[in-house]
Amino acid sequence: MPLQLRRGNVKPPDNNSVEKKIKRGNAQRQGSWFRRLRGWLLLGLLLGLLLLSAGLAWFYSNSDDDITEVWVRQSHLLQEKKFFEVPCSEDYENYQRYPGCTPQKCGRAVTDTVVTREEAERMRRIAERGLALGGSDGGASILDLHSGALSRGQHFVNIYRYFGDQIKDVFSEEDFQLYRTMRQRIQEAVARTFGLDVSRLYLTKPTFFSRMNGTEAKTAHDEYWHPHIDKVTYGSFDYTSLLYLSDYGSDFGGGRFVFMDGVANRTVEPRSGRVSFFSSGSENLHRVEKVRWGTRFAITVSFTCDPAHAITDPALP
Ligand SMILES: *[C@@H]1O[C@H](CO)[C@@H](O)[C@H](O)[C@H]1NC(C)=O
Ligand SMILES: *[C@@H]1O[C@H](CO)[C@@H](O)[C@H](O)[C@H]1NC(C)=O
Known about the structure:
By secondary structure, the chain is α+β, with helices and mostly antiparallel strands. The protein is built from 6 helices and 16 strands. It has helices spanning 2-10, 16-63, 117-131, 159-162, 173-194, 230-233; strands at 68-72, 82-85, 107-111, 135-136, 140-143, 149-153, 155-158, 202-212, 239-244, 252-254, 257-260, 265-268, 275-279, 286-288, 291-294, 296-304. Strand 11 and strand 12 form a beta hairpin. Helix 3 packs across helix 5. One 2-acetamido-2-deoxy-beta-D-glucopyranose binds at residues 66-67, 260, 263-265. One of its GO terms (molecular function) is L-ascorbic acid binding. Its cofactor is L-ascorbate.
């Protein structure tokens, strides 16, 4: 259109040389117009290719994978507790209700301010020393200082019976004191978060240290990665907590905790000193990813509202 107008403006052509100049001018303008068009087309094509490859990459990374959201990252030191409320499942209705304890509010929390990294390291050393006395042939070993259960080969032994008085060379009074302090602080955090009477919440079994690595499972006890509901697995559980004793990404790979919410899988990346706790019903269906490399240490501390299922803190015999 602008070309037409310009041409119209210089009409009528009464001079040959003038006409040639105009034609040359038009040709040049047309040339630069085409060059620009070609430039835009190329750019468009490149952008299109870029979008297409990004789309394909997204499609392939998601087609056989799930929707996974990182809820709490290892590298993120939480200054404040993170809480996510989930409506309570009906699981609790099959049990007696204990006022001031039975979940009225359900959900999950993560905090990095209840246990220090130094305390977590001391706890990990307790686990390392104890587990060095045994260890599963498969990838998952446990040590329960309450019952004395320790994975050994494809079975369990009772360290208090098996090692007798010698266990005092392995664990000290300070170790048990630290254990009690950690348990008490976690219990207070659970009570505060869910609005409970802390004295109506009881430690229950199993409460144990775990050590996991990439060795193939030998027995069902080694298969920690199956989705499960704590209240279904252990009827007495009302609140489950985990204290992580090693770091995802530097001490081990895989091994993230996953809340399976139907709409998404939401992960908690373990961090030494991080405490994660949640109401134990179906509202918190979860699993632990297989550990791919390194060693993952944690301690599971479980609570019940039912005094009949209460256990006492562990103590040296
Ligand atoms: C969550 O992960 C499981 C496997 O671990 C998968 O079967 C499921 O589809 C995932 N859920 C979503 C919403 O991606
Ligand atoms: C897992 O730990 C055990 C005991 O320390 C060790 O024998 C085994 O080689 C480890 N496996 C891997 C894959 O690191």
